[in-house]
Amino acid sequence: MSSVSLAVAAGLSFLLVVLHVFIIAAGAPAYRYFAAGESMVRPAEQGSPIPGLVTHRGGLHAPRPLLVAQAAQRGPAGPPTRERMFSAVSLSIGLVYIAAIAAVWSSPGP
Asked: Which of 23, 36, 54, 105 is deepest in the core (most CB within 10 A)?
């Protein structure tokens, strides 16, 4: 069970990497759609490499359990519906990682 949960977590991480690469390639419209904020959209519209670097650094290298904290911080009230959906996805992926870690820790050694 632990190897299956780790494989699922790894697969979800891979999908996040692909999504972040797409966002970098698509530029300003993708940043706007994924609610990155005008501080990312405006420089992307002007051709600045900064949004891509921030997306690469934050999206491709963020520890996945950190996604749980991010989603929990936003909470169910407040942000627009799209942001709530992204938070729910982040929370779900983080919970898969937590379940995978718990499965590894509870399984007997080799």
From this structure: 23
Listed residue (55, 63, 62, 19) closest to 39, CA to CA? 55
Domain with 93 in it: 2-106
Give the span between the Cα atoms of 88 and 53, in whole angstroms: 25
Q: Under DSSP, is residue 36 helix (H, G, I), strand (E, B) or coil?
A: coil
Q: What is the DSSP letter of 49?
A: S
Residue of 29, 1, 4, 15 lying closest to 67 (CA atoms)? 15
d(CA 30, CA 34) in angstroms, rounded, equals 6
pLDDT 10s digits, 25-84? 999 999 888 878 888 899 999 999 888 888 877 655 555 555 555 555 555 555 557 777
**Could you tell me the maximum CA-CA distance found in the chain, to the nearest angstrom?**
54
